[in-house]
Structures are given as C-alpha cells and as structure tokens.
Amino acid sequence: MTDGSTDGSDERTTRAVRPYVITGGRSDTGGEPLSWETLVMAVDEAGYPATLQPEHRMILTHCQGLLSVAEVAAHLGQPPSVVQVLLSDLIDWGLIVDRPPIPPAERADVTMLRKVLHGLESRL
After folding, report:
1. Whole-number Cα distances in Å, 35 to 53, 56, 69, 98
2. What confidence category does residue 40 fall into, taking pLDDT thresholds of 50, 70 and 90?
C-alpha cells in the first residue's frame, strides 16, 4: 500500500507485517502480563537460536542494558501489547530477565512535610 502520491515514491503507510502475524495470533502472554514499567535485559549469551524471528532478535539487540517494556516498544515501533507477548516468549526461553517495577512509595506523612516546609520558610 502506498501513500497515493504521484511523485513516484513508494513510501509505505502501513506495516508490511501486521502485529497479529508477529505474535502468531496471540494476544495473551499466557500468564501475568508485563507492565509497561517492567525493566528487561538480555541474558549475556554467546549466540541465540537461529530459529528466532526478526522481532525477537531486535528485542535482544536493544535490551543489552535495562529498558522498560514501553521503551522496547518504542524502539521496535510496535504496540506495547505486541512487545509484551514477544518479551514473555523470550523470558520463557531464558533469553531475557525481567525486574518488576518498584511499587510506588507510600504517601509521606503530611505533618512531617509541613514541619519541614515551615522550617525552610523560617530560614528564608
């Protein structure tokens, strides 16, 4: 599919491979889905199986350091839901390790914050 321009360029407006083809028709990870904030990193291995599809290989290339699921999706130009399925495959195969997001800190004591604020205001 082209953009309909008459300048002779064949620039694509849609991807050649649809997301459901990349995931093999799967939309579920088979377990608890990875949150977008989950950090992932490729396992340091000499070689990866030759049977990996290109998207799996691209994920392994980008995940040499810690990246979030959302960052991996941005690098691949794929929806996060597709990347979650692909990352789950790689985790199951032992090629990616994940670190769950750090839970949000509990709300700080408001009275303590007010004391700190008043102390700072008195010094200014």
Report:
1. 23, 18, 7, 11
2. very high
What domains sit in the chain, N to C, each tagged with a CATH number?
A: 19-123 (1.10.10.10)
Give me the mean pLDDT over the 62-75 stretch: 89
Structure token pair of residue 47 = 């070689």
Name every residue whose Cβ is closer than 8 Å to that of residue 3 and which is 6 or more positions away in sequence.
9, 11, 12, 13
Distance CA 86, CA 20 (A): 11
Q: Residue 66 in contact with residue 40, Cβ under 8 Å?
A: yes
Query: What's the number of CA atoms in the CB half-sphere (13 Å) around residue 4?
Result: 0
Which pTM value belongs to this model? 0.63
Query: What gap in Å lies between CA 48 and CA 30, rounded to an integer?
Result: 23
